[in-house]
Write a structure and sequence with these properties.
globular; 5 strands
Amino acid sequence: MRTYNIFISHSWKYDEDYQRLIGLLDKEPCFQGNYRDYSVTKDEPILSKNGNKLTDQGLMARISEQIRSASVVLIPVGIYATHSDWINEEIKIAKGFGKPIIAIKPWGTQRVSSVVKDAIETVGWNGSSIVDAIKRHTK
């Protein structure tokens, strides 16, 4: 089976969205264990070589490396995504590398972020829909 390299753009402030999304992916039988997550998580932040926190510029450079390694970028598009400078920077990086962006609309969301305009596809908060989109847009 193929391994899919993904980057999930998310705000640490809304870590539960990231955790739910990982849970959905892990429940998909044909996808479980067949992906590598290049996301920068709250539990595994990127640190400098000596273990210190990076400057914003250093962090952005490392995030850029992570996105470059991914085949696709997933973005949960609750309205908070519009106001996150980091998510907007990650979108710019993904576009710069020509990475497909898949927007994921959370359950019950009436309003979604304007970042949807940059997505190649918008899917619902459904594991099989997300996995199908990843497979369609991964080179």
